[in-house]
Amino acid sequence: MLIFGTDQDQVDTTKEFLSSKFDMKDTGEVDVILGIKIIRGEHGITISQSHYIEKMLNKFNLKDCSPIGTPMDPTIKLMPNKGVPVNQLEYSRAIGSLMYAMLSTRPDIAFAVGKLSRYTHNPGLIHWQTINRVFKYLKGTMDYGLTYSGFTSVLEGYSDASWITNKEDHSSTSGWVFLLGGGAICWASKKQTCITVSTMESEFVALAACHLIGTNTAAGKEAKWLRNLIYEIPLWHKQISSISIRCDSQATLAKAYSEVYNGKSRYLGVRHSMIRDLITNGVISIVFVKTQHNLADHLTKWLNRDLVKSSAIGVGLKCKTKGATYMSMKFSRFKKLGLGFDMLMKDKDIG
């Protein structure tokens, strides 16, 4: 059980009350919970799964793999396997292990894991090669953790979509991320369930989806849910403004603020009505952002190494030990060439 609060006296009172009713042991300040490390520093709190990733690499015999800078290779186009499944049970275990890391602290692998999970029922060699690449990326970024500095205390979101990223069924991919206190608190990369006929439509579906959290019986509005959650936390004593959702499509922005939907697609009409209702009630506001500044971009498509790194930093992913990733990746390259540590240090000094 994790107990937290802003008043230490209240926390102590709660622990005393629970101890009087149940057999409990106070282990002090939390260090690890559910496989997630909590690290307190001068600049805020960092949550990391470096030890979990290390165990995962050992489990799948990849502890000595060479680190790599991106979770996916943009030149590889994944397609369903037409042949016999290749080690399907082990593939499912690998996906499950990666998914826990992705859901907890690693939004930078959300697109890769979401894409690979679609082939769990019949994986092929190409899918195994791609999943091993994700492990190699995690090896090089093992010390990454989500850092929350407390600034800013304003909830903001980013929405994006990639049109027809799945050639086999012509579906698109939605991505969204919400940030608070300098780090991501909620993110997703999902295959769209409807077929869109333009980039604007796919962006609009993603914009609508970033406000939805599905249940078995109903659909709630995620942005509104997060906003109501903040209302219940006694840290914000002022009126909370509307949640700013940043989108990189001017056409989608115009459609969202248009009072009349004149299209023929029923699925877009429903989403338009929902978004208009949220805007009118002051729950959300839609703001344009350039594509290179859209922090949801990496949740919808493959990106090169520089963009992967900048997106990770943007959502609050930072390396716990500065330079550790660079050193480990460099050392692996020189080790392959049979060069020693002296040469590595010389290379680092040069550039």
From TrEMBL:
Pfam families attached to this UniProt entry: RVT_2 (PF07727)
Signal sequence interval, chain numbering: none
InterPro entries linked: RVT_2
Residue stretches making up the Reverse transcriptase Ty1/copia-type domain: 1-72
PANTHER family registered for this protein in UniProt: GAG-POL-RELATED RETROTRANSPOSON, RNA-DIRECTED DNA POLYMERASE
Protein name listed in UniProt: Reverse transcriptase Ty1/copia-type domain-containing protein
Species in which this protein is naturally found: Centaurea solstitialis
